[in-house]
Amino acid sequence: MTLTAILIVASALFGIGLFGALSQKSFVMLMMGLELMLNGTLLAAVGFWSFTLAGAPEGQLLAILIMAVMAVELAIGFALVVAVYRKRQADVIEALGTMKQ
Amino acid sequence: MSFPVAFLIMLVFLLFGIALAAILDGVIYRRIAGRPGIPVLMPFYRAAAHLSRQRIETEAPDRLNWFLAIGGYIAVGAVGLAVVPLGPESAVIGIKTSVVLWGACEALVVVLVFLHGWSPNSPLALIGAYRYVAIGLPIMLLSMFVLIAAALPAQSLDLREIVISQEDIWNVIRQPLGLPLFLLLGLSLTLRGPFDYADSTDLAGGTAAEDSGAYRAGWQVARLTMLVGFSAVAATAFLGGYLGPVLPGPVWLALKTLVVMVLVIGLSHLLARMPVARMLGLIWKVLLPIAFVDLLLAGLVALA
Amino acid sequence: MTDIAFYTLSALAIWSGWRVFRVDSMIRATFALMVSFISVAGIALLMSADYIGVATVFMMAVEMMVMALFMVMFMMNPAGLNPMQMVHQYRFSIGAGIVAFIGLSVAVLATNLPHNPLPAGRDTMRDLGIELLGASMLIFETAGVTLLATMLGAVALSSRNGRFGNSEEGALPPGLHPGGTPAGRKVEKGGGHGGHGGHGGHGGHGGHGDHGMKESDKAGDKGDTDAGHMHHHAPAPDEDHQHTPKKEH
User: Fold this and answer.
1) Which chain B residue lies closest to C28 (C-alpha atoms)?
2) b/e per residue, C62-77, with b = 16+ CB within 10 A?
3) Is the pLDDT of residue C155 over 70?
4) Under an 8 A CB cutoff, do B108 and C57 touch?
5) Residue C210 — pLDDT band, cuts 50, 70, 90?
6) Nearest to residue B140, comparing CAs of B188, B82, B206?
7) A50 interfaces chain C, CB cutoff of 8 Å
8) Cβ neighbours of B191 (radius 10 Å)
9) What count of CB pairs under 8 Å joins B to C?
10) Cross-strand bridge partners of residue C161
11) Structure ipTM
12) Which of A10, A23, A47 has its CB closest to that of C87?
């Protein structure tokens, strides 16, 4: 287990997440893509903390912050989905094409 | 105590616990109902009947998740038992965050019960799954408050340290609100009595409505496994775990686990049921504030 | 031993992450994501991040449970029993994903990473606790306040009662004079094409309804074809635009 291996796994997770976030039509699936990208970020943060910081606790703090970001993303994301659905019966991204008008 | 020995003790503990819990359930129910007789062999006959029956499947079920829900529920209950120390420095899973690990198990129970209701592709099971998620998530917050309060005097999230911190006085006396609240969580985790919104009889068995044959027996065993795991954790966090005079540690742990188990089973047959909406109101407006007061008091005591 | 566990968990994390976007059943997708998170948590435990690892399992089990509920609510086909087209700009997305992966990996391989590992036997949990409530307390508290703001925002966004009344009646601003017609644009209710009868008194608000609808439908279809797929996810275009606000031209 080396830092390089961990970072490559993290970038694979990030890549898959990016693919999902860009390709999925449903809001909820898009959010799953974002979560997967954050998953990769979390792994990278913990990896850097464990291998390069000589145990300085700031690395763990970053991981905690990433988890908080996930929670925020999820809560606001679902609230927006609910609001948009109430207003327009829309649950796919294309249905929002006219939002700017 | 080495790992293989501890693991073996845990396994024996679990098997005896499941059998005893099944017997106690029938006995206590009969005592409360005022009926004579002690049906010792009844649960075993019933298990044998289930196992010998054919399994009937619904249309287009999610087979993988059906199997994983039952297996996972058993595994999560066993993990709960595994974090419990059998003596000083001898838990099967000895990590420093065992309380958080138990919390993760509680969270996974909600996931697994939902999956169990989802996978048969049938309406009553799905309704049970939804109701259980609504109740299971807030009541988990309650257990977090209570467990953190129990961890405060030990200044550690390790159950081994929590036991050592109870050498002078048990947490059940130090934090009188803790154990009653935690028992309510136990009712929810083991799908029992008033907190059984997943498998209740008003849904014809809820998430277990479509279980038959070996799966039905498996689901009941899983619920009993969770009961044993929960009782052991409660006995450790609030009743001093393996601490006690004369008798060896594991025996004390077993006796205390038995006491908690009897309490949970008794409560499950005595407490009244409520509609889901009222229960949600009770949890959010009454039980959670009480749990927070418990945490606050524990914090003040720790500071004083 | 650690290496075997690491490679197994990594493979599981990547495989289940990939399955998230390849399975038909939304429930399976959600819980595949949960498996991916739990694998990463396992790797974190291997790196002796005791608290982060276990807390990740805890957090993600709850989060994915909530996600699964929303999945079932908002998907037409949550069990994946019917075939359905759920993706757009597919080739571009695959390209972007691969470019991100290769780019990051090359960056990782090309960099001379510092090596200053965690000292053995260090109490990482104690470190974290002291840091959270000591030097970095401000950051921690900021995260807490952010979460509180998120809660308020989520409640405000998803609440039925908006500033101008119940959201299901359409968010209408108050009239210019007491009891008068609402200021600003009008939200159409009850059917896209036939609903002009009730709006006779409202001057120019209803008149251009049909025209506006057709144009927006056309625009929608064109946009769809450009994106490289032909299937409407929503039940039918008419229902799709039922609650679309109409505009004045």
Assistant:
1) B65
2) bbbbebbbbbbebbee
3) yes
4) yes
5) very low
6) B188
7) yes
8) 28
9) 63
10) C166
11) 0.89
12) A23
